[in-house]
Design a protein that fits this description.
The protein has 771 residues and is an alpha+beta fold. The chain is built from 19 helices and 19 strands. 54% of the residues lie in helices and 16% in strands. About 2% of the residues have low confidence.
């Protein structure tokens, strides 16, 4: 047994469990980081896109609501002019009622514009207007441009020709207030199914600008652009950097000028042009020719199809009248990836459409903001996971420490102490090693170790005492060798009875001669020693006689000389016969025989001490090697050859298979006649269903008559008292219990081959073995 050693730091269970936990935590963190990097950013980008789409839809719905408020005011003026009496004071009052001070930031100038002569021949033609001034509205009853009456202007003629019952929007243009943009909604007024005039309301865009700035600020990052039907920017959430008004003319700038012709925006510009072309294509297909002619005359950019703002305005008018789109519908047209844009060096652009005007709202969200959200989420997630994992690891570690590590350390310390006591052969002190109990696995292990130490203390202590007594008796009392051998034999028989090994009990008669052989020559040696000691006894008698004669005072010299001569003669005979050397050799041989008997008994005990009838799965080579060791004494004069072919493991009772093999080896040895080429060969091989063991000898062989009877009980070819005749019958019974077989082939004068057949797939149980 090796000396006790302390467990190193990295070999301690606590250290190994801790390392495993940390490795597991590292793997979990790595997986989380991988998932966040691989999928998190993309999902966050998608969710961010959904949020931008929601904000954009909200902004579009807000703009649509403002547009509809303006349209309602224009329609209110239309209804007043169409239904009220044509009296100046009534028209003036209705015009004033349409402009509420609460809409001051939204509604600009506007009013009722009668056609030439619509007020009567006795009344000069003039409009009924309201204009913004100093936070309120002021009435104007004169033509703003008397040199060119309004009823001669293009916008009025457009309304007169088209006679729209809803808003026909004009292009966005600067107002008299510097930096302020507005666009006009024109509606036709009819009386008696005849064109009477037009109602207009200017939609000022200052409120839109403020709303867009607030929306951009609420989102925390990015910017927003609002463009009209001619791709002019009419509102910007960042006017300081993205200036959208020409400082000299006050006219909105083209989007290319605002973005400074950023190449990253080219897909968006192409998309806007394609949208314009598609709308123009659709509206042109369903416009009457006379409408096309009027719009073509009015449109200043008719040479460029995609710039035909009048066509787009007319399309918006038709769309507004026919549309019943819910405010819950998405206004998002398309999103774009602005790679390496000059503003953010990477962003996402979302293009929305205002259906009442066909304006476009462009919301730009920087990638850095989305990535920052993902990075922050990843960092927070990893921190939380790390915290949770460390807390879990600490709890697991402390629980394992108190429930397992400390009890295990106590157990290992006790085992080390027991190991040291066993190394020092202090078996009597093993009872002082106390293991703590418990209902868990450690407690069960401690109980098993305690039982094992008790057995070691009992068995090893007894064995040590017996060995010591045997050594003393062999050294000091050679004369009692026979009694010691009988006692050893009785101990062997008692061991067989106490362990109740049926297999070993059946083998006792077969192996008895293995003990008798060394016992016989030990007995012969003792008889020879007895005969040889007669010469020593004669010498001793002569010496005693000489002593007696010398003690007689009157002894004759002749008698003394004769005794001396006899003593010399006896001494010479002893020296001549070399009795001392012969006695030493006889005693040495006798001791060797005793050692053989002792080794045989120990081998038998080891052979049968564990699993007498237990069934387990083993390699048949183990059975063969064990059997060769048990039968080693009887086959020591033969040449043993083993030829182990590849065989699978099988299910069997190893001790019973050993019994069969030992019986075959003994029989093979006894079949030899002392030839110089005596040989026993043990060979294994297998096929798909069975494993085979062959035991071959080149002995005298058997006749067919003997071969037919070898498996019958009590049949033997040995002399009376040399065999029981049960060995082969028992072997056959064992093989049948294993669902196998034993067969023999023999040729007289050549040798014998015994073959054991064992199934590979054997449904063998201990119950079937004991049945």
């Amino acid at each position: 047994m090796s000396a006790s050693k302390k467990v190193g730091l990295f070999n301690q269970v606590s250290t190994q469990v801790t390392i495993i936990l940390f490795l597991a935590f590292a793997v979990v963190v790595a997986v989380v980081v991988y998932i966040v990097e691989k999928e998190g950013y993309e999902k966050i980008r998608l969710e961010s896109g959904k949020l931008v789409a929601q904000r954009g839809n909200t902004a579009v719905n807000s703009i649509s609501a403002d547009v509809n408020r303006v349209m309602r005011s224009a329609l209110q003026l239309q209804q007043s002019a169409q239904t009220l009496p044509i009296e100046e004071n009534i028209l003036q009052t209705s015009t004033a009622n349409a402009f509420d001070k609460r809409d001051y930031s939204l509604l600009g100038s506007g009013g009722i514009w009668p056609d030439n002569g619509a007020l009567g021949d006795s009344t000069a033609t003039h409009p009924f207007l309201m204009v913004r001034q100093d936070g309120d509205y002021r009435a104007i009853l004169t033509d703003p441009n008397p040199a060119n009456p309004y009823y001669n202007e293009n916008w009025f003629n457009k309304v007169k020709v088209l006679r729209p019952n809803g808003c026909i929007w004009a292009d966005v243009s600067p107002t008299q207030t510097k930096g302020e943009l507005a666009m006009s909604c024109g509606v036709a007024i009819e009386r008696d199914n005849q064109f009477w005039g037009a109602s207009t309301v200017n939609f000022t865009l200052n409120q839109l600008q403020e709303n867009i700035v607030k929306l951009s600020e609420s989102s925390g990052s990015g910017y927003i652009l609002l463009i009209d039907n001619s791709n002019k920017v009419i509102a910007s959430s960042n006017p300081e950097r993205l200036n959208y008004i020409d400082e000299e003319t006050g006219v909105p700038l083209d989007i290319k000028q605002v973005i400074d012709s950023d190449p990253a925006w080219q897909p968006i510009l192409d998309f806007l042009d394609a949208q314009h072309s598609e709308i123009i294509k659709q509206i042109a297909a369903k416009m009457p020719p006379e409408v096309q002619q009027v719009i073509a005359t009015l449109d200043k950019n008719e040479a460029t199809a995609v710039s035909n703002s009048e066509l787009i305005n007319y399309a918006a008018y038709l769309n507004a009248n026919a549309s019943n789109t819910s405010t819950m519908d998405s206004r998002l047209l398309q999103s774009f990836d602005l790679t390496n844009d000059s503003y953010y060096n990477g962003s996402q652009a979302y293009v929305f459409q205002i259906p009442e005007t066909y304006w476009k709202l462009i919301v730009v969200q920087p990638d850095a903001a989305v990535n920052a959200i993902a990075d922050n989420l990843s960092k927070n997630l990893i921190n939380l996971i790390m915290l949770a994992l460390f807390i879990t690891a600490a709890l697991i570690y402390f629980m394992l420490t108190f429930l397992a590590f400390k009890p295990l350390k106590k157990t290992t310390d006790k085992i080390s102490l027991a190991e040291k006591l066993i190394d020092d052969k202090q078996y009597n002190k093993l009872s002082d090693v106390k293991f703590s109990g418990g209902r868990n696995e450690i407690g069960l292990v401690n109980h098993s170790i305690s039982e094992l130490l008790h057995r070691i203390q009992s068995n090893e202590g007894k064995l040590a005492n017996i060995n010591q007594q045997l050594e003393v008796k062999v050294e000091e009392r050679t004369a009692e060798l026979q009694d010691t051998l009988k006692e050893l034999k009785n101990s062997q028989l008692q061991l067989i009875r106490s362990e109740k090994m049926a297999t070993l009990g059946q083998m006792v008669a077969g192996v008895a001669h293995e003990v008798n052989t060394p016992l016989s020559y030990v007995q012969n040696n003792l008889e020879i020693i007895g005969q040889l000691t007669e010469q020593y006894e004669e010498l001793i008698e002569l010496v005693q006689g000489l002593k007696g004669v010398q003690s007689e005072s009157a002894a004759a010299d002749e008698k003394i000389d004769k005794l001396l001569a006899d003593i010399v003669r006896a001494s010479d005979e002893i020296e001549e016969d070399d009795l001392s050397s012969e006695l030493k050799e006889l005693i040495k041989d006798s001791l060797f025989g005793v050692e053989q008997i002792t080794e045989m008994v120990l081998n038998l005990r080891n052979f049968a001490r564990l699993d007498e009838s237990k069934v387990k799965t083993i390699d048949v080579r183990e059975c063969i090697e064990s059997s060769l060791k048990i039968a080693g004494n009887s086959i020591r004069h033969q040449d043993i050859v083993t030829n182990f072919g590849p065989t699978p493991e099988i299910k069997c009772s190893p001790s019973q298979i050993n019994q069969v093999l030992v019986n075959l080896l003994n029989n093979a040895s006894q079949a030899m006649e002392g030839n110089p080429d005596d040989k026993i060969e043990v060979r294994t091989y297998a096929d798909e269903t069975n494993v085979y063991i062959e035991v071959t000898d080149n002995g005298k062989g058997m006749s067919q008559a003997v071969l037919d009877q070898i498996f019958e009980p009590f049949f033997t070819t040995k002399a009376a008292g040399e065999g029981t005749g049960l060995g082969m019958a028992i072997s056959q019974q064992i093989m049948e219990q294993h669902n196998g077989a034993i067969t023999a082939t023999s040729t007289e004068g050549v040798g014998t081959v015994f073959t054991l057949t064992l199934p590979i797939n054997n449904n063998l149980t201990e119950q079937s073995m004991s049945a």
